[in-house]
């Protein structure tokens, strides 16, 4: 009996890498995707994944090719974790429509492409797990990141729609909604904010931490544990939920 094959997009760092590492600990076979082959190779060499495929989730052909390669390496995809994402920041009045298009391409349509690639096989086998890594930005608003907030709300809408559509096929589709997490993405956001405002990065980091009632940033491992639960056999009745991992910032 083969182990489940878990495909993690954006798996070269941060939350994605933590998810891959945690899934390996639970005995799964893990493939990570990302844009940089050298970084992905390092993830595999470090033992945080078994396989990797280079994939730009904003490219239709690249996603189809990557999924075929992943299946050839480790078998059908049983669990999909849509983690690839990113954000830009600025005042709404300074942003172009292109900023919103780019946010949707990466944060929403990347997940759509991967879901379209793996769902037919899941339906055929009568089982599967999909977890979309959203954000507390899918549940509330934040200043100066309108494209990101808009895209993450859309990702949650996709999650809820697919959960209903595929519930009778033995497939669950859920979202985790991390608050500010000690990851490369948040570090980049802090650096951008510091550069634009001239304020010390330490002050901005502390400001981000204050969103969490615990007074700290989440760890990537805390998010990974939540993802693993939603992927587990025991979570078969959990479907269409948005699970906050934010210390009580949102209900």
Automatic annotation (TrEMBL):
Superkingdom of the source species: Bacteria
Occurrences of domain Ketoreductase (ranges): 4-170
InterPro entries: KR_dom, NAD(P)-bd_dom_sf, Sc_DH/Rdtase_CS, SDR, SDR_fam
Record GO biological process: monocarboxylic acid metabolic process
Family in the record: Belongs to the short-chain dehydrogenases/reductases (SDR) family.
Protein name: NAD(P)-dependent oxidoreductase
Organism: Komagataeibacter xylinus
């Amino acid at each position: 009996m083969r182990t489940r094959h878990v495909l993690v997009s954006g798996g070269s760092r941060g939350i994605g890498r933590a998810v891959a590492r945690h899934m390996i600990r639970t005995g799964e076979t893990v493939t990570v995707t990302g844009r940089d082959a050298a970084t992905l190779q390092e993830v595999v060499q470090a033992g945080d994944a078994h396989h990797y495929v280079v994939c730009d989730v904003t490219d239709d052909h690249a996603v189809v090719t990557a999924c075929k390669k992943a299946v050839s390496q480790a078998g059908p995809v049983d669990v999909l974790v849509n983690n690839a994402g990113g954000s830009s920041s600025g005042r709404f009045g300074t942003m172009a429509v292109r900023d919103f298009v780019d946010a949707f391409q990466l944060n929403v349509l990347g997940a759509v492409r991967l879901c379209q690639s793996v769902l037919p096989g899941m339906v055929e086998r009568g089982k599967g797990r999909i977890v979309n890594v959203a954000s507390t930005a899918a549940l509330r608003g934040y200043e100066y990141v309108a494209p990101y907030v808009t895209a993450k709300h859309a990702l949650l809408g996709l999650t809820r729609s697919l959960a209903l559509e595929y519930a009778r096929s033995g497939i669950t589709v859920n979202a985790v909604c991390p608050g500010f997490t000690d990851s490369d993405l948040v570090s980049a956001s802090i650096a951008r904010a510091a550069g634009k405002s001239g304020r010390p990065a330490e002050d901005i980091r502390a400001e981000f931490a204050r969103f969490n009632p615990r007074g700290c940033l989440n760890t990537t491992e805390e998010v990974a544990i939540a993802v693993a639960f939603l992927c587990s056999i025991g979570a078969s009745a959990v479907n269409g939920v948005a699970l906050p991992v934010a210390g009580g910032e949102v209900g």
